[in-house]
Amino acid sequence: MKHEIRVYKVENFTVVNVRGKIDSTNSEEAEIDLNLILENDDKFYIFDLCGLEYISSAGLRVFLTASKKIKNHKGAFVICEVSEDIREVFDITGLLNVFILCGTLDAAVEKMKALCS
Amino acid sequence: MSKIPKGNAIKPKIAVVVGSGGIKPACAIPLFEFLDEHGIGIDMLIGCSGGAIVSAMRGFGYAPSEMSELFSKNLTRSLFSSVDYRTLLGIAKMPLGRFDKTRGILKPQRLIEVLKVIFKNSTFDAMKIPTLVQVTDVDTGEGALIDSGGIAEAVYASAAQFPFFPPVSIGGRWFVDGAFSSPLPVLEAVNRGYDVIIAVAIEQQVKTESKSFIEFLHQFISRSYTSTQKKQTALAIDMHHHEIIVINMHFDEMINMWDVEKLPDIIETGRKIINKKKDEIMAAIENFRGRRKKHE
């Protein structure tokens, strides 16, 4: 499986669930998919990465690009449900300092409420 | 695992970056074994501090087995025990003491001599693979890369952890440890347009309390380098166009530059971590071809 993206709502926040793997073979497609999602009027997003098995630097760049788009629209996003392996990738690449990571979807919703208030 | 065929028209440009970490960057030796075994050529090497020694050895043409041997044979405790008492007195503002930017707590001559033996007194023109050495300008704090002149002097500068080791003058500028400005110079590889960048990062996280001032200072400096390294790596990923494979070599015990008896363990740690990263490296190279074909 390459990647699969599902979108749903939790308490008015758009949750983007990304599964599978993202590397240089599918990062362009993943970016196009995310761009389509970010084109709606929402400003606040939760990226639920449960089911994301692997991410390379090209995949990380997809999230960095999404992050810039969201911030350009004065929005915010948090990432949640990250596996230990993926968390380690975020850590060694310095992206733990760039993204807000929450353990669970519930924690991400609470964080997002705090960011919106 | 397949070998990468030679002469492929869409071979990615590959850079290997080896970060700072005293003797620990020797853990990158199994990476070179793996690349050799699979016929993967390196287009550029960039090293910082201890990583500059490893990168320059590889660039100079030493085989992985020779690199291990050179480390064991040449890096002895005596290289790091020749105290410059006049500098020490100078730091304490004692009579007969002298301190200025050209001096360090340790005398560097023996280390420079050993590096001259390893690199046979050669200049960068003798490098088999283009190699860049990261240093820091002691007057400006800015990073710089050396790719000309004497290899031993450049490698010494890259590893000269001030104030322990004194800066060295190269081309009219005074240089010290490259880790002060860029402990893992991935951005330099990105700026030069390399497609696949394999970056060996050294992380030392010692859980026990420091037993001495020097140990505490080393641990603090090491943590500070790691922090700088992560920020620069994040920026490099954002700026890059293909794949950066960061290989995080994690050590949870204090290993000093002179702990050559730990070399087999360091290399074994490297081998285990490289084994886990092999598929990722191969995929990044293969995917570049696929990506290029798709865009053609």
From TrEMBL, chain B:
Gene3D superfamilies: Cytosolic phospholipase A2 catalytic domain (3.40.1090.10). Residues 16-190 form the PNPLA domain. The keyword Lipid metabolism applies. A motif (GXSXG) lies at residues 47-51. Keywords: Hydrolase, Lipid degradation, Lipid metabolism. Coiled coil: none annotated. InterPro entries: Acyl_Trfase/lysoPLipase, NTE, PNPLA_dom. SUPFAM superfamilies: FabD/lysophospholipase-like. GO terms for biological process: lipid catabolic process. Transmembrane segments: none annotated. A motif (DGA/G) lies at residues 177-179. The active site is at S49, D177. One of its GO terms (molecular function) is hydrolase activity. This is PNPLA domain-containing protein. It comes from Candidatus Wallbacteria bacterium GWC2_49_35.
